[in-house]
Write a structure and sequence with these properties.
Length: about 475
């Protein structure tokens, strides 16, 4: 019994060392060596051809997205203005969308988003939210359907958007589970295909996958926040001496090996991205723009790094606008607008816009009614998706009536019940990425509550915003 306990304890240690010893910044080789393969990755799928990348741009804090995409026609605008009162954007200040979006406008801080939409490079998904099964106003008021855990909680909803399982509190993300399935298509076993510019996250964590965490300079995180790990020879020599020491204790040896492998993977990554020529695109100095510049450099280095599938995660905080909504959101939306436009321009430079899909989301939207000078936590909201394979210039899903006491309006504060499940959005992105329809139910366990799974294919996707 003692020996059995020791081996179990050792396995637990190795697992934690490989995943957490340096803040989940671990090379894939360590995970493959130290983690058991589960059923999801037991039978490796055939290699996927070509290159594809997904980028999750998460607006953390609850973006008031009914001030991001707004109705512009007279009746609908009047409903919007009556509900929003002092939070309403003036009808003449909205930037009108063309084509199918002609009845709607975007926030005045988003001129490039307007242009991307009109050019067919971007679409909106209206009234998306976490659900376990479809919900109506009557069902909600009668408590006759299960609701996402911690429905109006930042932490819970932030995690549910990343896990795709709002009925659970889990540390497995749908991006990580996708990586479990397709990582064998990449030849690089030292660096995870899941790269984060925003540290540890649930989205990129799977059974056998974690994120490779870096800063906007490409430096391995959190070991060093400077651009170059080896810039200080004394520091590097001291670290190498510790890591190369011949440890007899297996705990110490495992920790040192994983740490050393992570540093070497970071150097491999930084060497590849440093060799990328400078873009003609001028990136802004905001954190978001710098992060997207780093993603563009990483994609440009895809052949050197030997990747044909990658998933990126960027988080922008500061959206919890309980006060000064109009001023604060305008600045935030401008940052999003600039970063998205600059990223698109850089991808065009390297000829990769058609192979990259960027989706912009938040854990929930906000109450339609004002709390005096801001808005509070709510539910369904509007998302964006950009890419060459996006069926752009459209608004998918059902944009709700914002009339007080409409069929989607619950409570006295103007919480909107979502009409499109996050599962539908995520499953379509997964299909585009190359995931088999037969694997969707494993990744998104509630998907069958919204769709006939046997009918979901690349020809008949859940929503239709992606060109397969």
């Amino acid at each position: 019994m003692k020996d059995s306990k020791f081996h179990q304890s050792r396995r637990n240690f190795i697992k934690q060392a490989s995943l957490a010893s340096i803040g989940l910044t671990t090379p894939m080789s360590s995970i493959i060596n130290f983690k058991a393969m589960n059923a999801l990755a037991a039978a490796a799928p055939p290699p996927l051809s070509g290159y594809k990348a997904m980028v999750c741009f998460f607006l953390h804090g609850g973006n008031d997205s009914y001030n991001m995409l707004m109705p512009k026609t007279s009746t609908e605008y009047n409903h919007y203005a009556a509900a929003r009162t002092n939070l309403a954007i003036d009808q003449n200040a909205m930037l009108p969308l063309g084509g199918i979006g002609g009845n709607y406008g975007v926030h005045p801080s988003m001129p490039d988003i307007q242009q991307l939409f009109d050019n067919g490079d971007l679409s909106f998904l209206a009234n998306v939210g976490t659900m376990i099964e479809p919900v109506t106003k009557t069902m909600y008021e009668n408590s006759s359907v299960p609701l996402p855990l911690g429905l109006f909680s930042h932490l819970d909803q932030y995690n549910h958007w990343q896990s795709g399982s709002p009925h659970l509190r889990t540390n497995k993300g749908w991006g990580g589970q996708i990586a479990d399935l397709v990582s064998s298509s990449n030849n690089n076993t030292n660096i995870s295909m899941n790269l984060s510019l925003s540290g540890s996250n649930i989205f990129q964590y799977g059974q056998n996958s974690v994120e490779f965490s870096m800063n906007y300079n490409g430096a391995l995180m959190p070991i060093n926040r400077d651009a170059n790990w080896g810039s200080n020879p004394l520091r590097r020599a001291a670290t190498d001496s510790i890591l190369n020491y011949g440890y007899q204790d297996q705990y110490h040896k495992t920790y040192a090996d994983v740490f050393k492998g992570s540093i070497e993977a970071g150097e491999e990554f930084q060497t590849a991205t440093d060799a990328v020529p400078a873009f003609n695109t001028s990136f802004s100095t905001t954190q978001s723009s710098r992060n997207f510049q780093m993603i563009a450099k990483t994609i440009a280095a895809r052949n050197t790094l030997d990747f044909n599938r990658q998933i990126f995660f960027v988080r922008l905080g500061g959206w919890d606008h309980h006060d000064e909504l109009l001023i604060n959101q305008a600045a935030k939306l401008q940052e999003v607008n600039n970063a998205m436009a600059e990223f698109k321009s850089a991808l065009d430079e390297i000829g990769m816009f058609n192979d990259v899909t960027t989706f912009v989301c938040s854990e929930f939207s906000r109450t339609l009614t004002s709390n005096g000078n801001g808005s509070d936590h709510a539910w369904g909201g509007n998302a964006m998706v950009m890419g060459g394979d996006v069926n752009g210039g459209n608004i998918y899903g059902t944009y709700p009536s914002l009339e007080v006491n409409s069929s989607q309006y619950i409570g006295s504060r103007g919480v909107i019940i979502p009409t499109t499940a996050t599962d539908s959005m995520f499953a379509e992105l997964a299909l585009w990425y190359g995931i088999s329809p037969s694997d969707l139910a494993t990744i998104f366990p509630n998907l069958s509550n919204f769709h006939n799974l046997s009918a979901l294919t690349t020809s008949t996707p859940p929503i239709g915003f992606m060109n397969m």
